[in-house]
Design brief:
single chain; 362 residues; alpha/beta; TIM Barrel; 6-stranded parallel beta sheet; 3-stranded parallel beta sheet; 14 helices; globular; binds S-adenosylmethionine
Length: 362
């Protein structure tokens, strides 16, 4: 097993069966070695800097009906909203003052008529904050829309593929959605020139270890600049809300430690990639005053990005993707001091650089 960590560090890839062995391995010594190797690679590339991205929950209106997601169109129990351009710019101004130099506009799949608004917001952010990057995470849209947003100044796009297995994809999504289209979108985003992020939920309903291996192989081939992975957490008002969380291959699994293993595996596979310690990870493992939480554990496993919430506090509750989502303290833009303090305890610090993806020769 230890040989696998060494092989992954040296060759940056493993055979499918070897990835699977690492995923199911419960030997603490091997897992510790995996995290240590990944942490060393992240340290070597990024030093003690953790990049912050200001997450703006732009809209919870969604045309899609993903079976796991709390903002799916069929959930009638949430108040729907879309932030206006002025509200977005106000959040950016506050975020800028706090030190954010990347703004991530995330939201549901708005109808195509909203393209003009999105385009206008991208251009306005770039104009008002020319030293900042705009990242979009607005789901599957038409090729032309992606092009328009890019021309307006958005340079990064996050679109998780969610699962690389078509049968598993069909279990998580309604029939009108397809893995094929999602992969098409990812290819287009890359071709257009976006720094592109993808990823998936860990412990999503019906997921198997073989599915996760397929995800790893896909990410190894696609080589995204950003990789977002976080545990699945049920939302009570969704069809999968009653699904027992924390199962992989129908058997209880520690999805926090599985997510951490995956962060380390991806850090070793793609050393330059930008990997956030996600809010879902921090939600499932909040930590305590003297105990590292999911955010810190993610960083110690090789993550190098955190995305505090800078949305207007009044809408945060309505952007409920899953039950109990953390949106305050170190998960929020107002809590940067808490974040700074928690990071310093594990030997890291917030970097206010834009933090663009920048590949190294080796
Ligand atoms: N609509 C866009 C999309 O689908 O890419 C962006 C917004 S979507 C809500 C952002 C991410 O939230 C999804 O990629 C999904 O992985 C995650 N998510 C949704 N429901 C979740 C749940 N129940 N548990 C954990 N993550 C969830």
């Amino acid at each position: 097993m230890k040989g696998l960590v060494r092989k992954l560090s040296e060759k940056r890839s493993l055979e499918a069966g070897e990835y699977r062995s690492l995923l199911v391995c419960d030997d603490d010594e091997v897992i510790g070695e995996l995290h240590e190797a990944a942490r060393a690679v992240a340290r070597e590339r990024f030093g003690d800097s953790i990049w912050i991205r200001g997450l703006l929950e732009f809209t919870n209106i969604c045309c899609n009906d993903c079976l796991y997601c709390g903002i799916r169109r069929s959930n009638r129990k949430i108040a729907r909203y879309t932030l206006s351009k002025d509200e977005v710019l106000e959040c950016c101004a506050r975020g800028y003052g706090a030190g954010f130099r990347t703004f991530v506009l995330q939201g549901g799949e708005l109808p195509d008529q909203s393209d003009r608004l999105i385009e206008d917001i991208c251009a306005s952010i770039r104009k008002s904050f020319p030293d900042c990057a705009v990242t979009l995470s607005l789901g599957e849209r038409q090729d032309e829309s992606y092009e328009r947003f890019f021309r307006a100044g958005a340079t990064r796009y996050l679109l998780r593929h969610e699962t690389r297995n078509p049968d598993h994809y069909a279990m998580l999504h309604p029939p009108e959605m397809s893995l094929e289209h999602r992969l098409h979108c990812l290819d287009r985003l890359k071709e257009i020139g976006y720094q592109t992020g993808t990823g998936f939920m860990v412990g999503s309903p019906f997921q198997t270890y073989d599915n996760i291996v397929e995800d790893i192989l896909f990410i190894g081939g696609f080589r995204p600049e950003m990789i977002g992975i976080g545990p699945f957490i049920p939302h009570r008002n969704t069809p999968l809300g009653k699904y027992r969380a924390g199962l992989v291959d129908h058997v209880p699994a520690n999805v926090v430690s599985l997510t951490l293993k995956l962060i380390s595996i991806f850090r070793l596979m793609l050393p330059d990639s930008l990997i956030p310690a996600t809010t879902a990870l921090a939600t499932l493992a909040p930590g305590g005053p003297d105990q590292p939480g999911g955010r810190e554990m993610g960083i110690l496993a090789g993550a190098n990005v955190v995305m505090p919430n800078i949305s207007p506090p009044g809408v945060r509750e309505s952007y409920s993707l899953y039950d109990g989502k953390a949106a305050s303290g170190a998960e929020s833009g107002e809590g940067l001091e808490i974040l700074e303090e928690r990071l310093s305890r594990i030997g890291y610090r917030i970097s206010t650089d834009r933090g663009d993806w920048s590949p190294r020769e080796n």
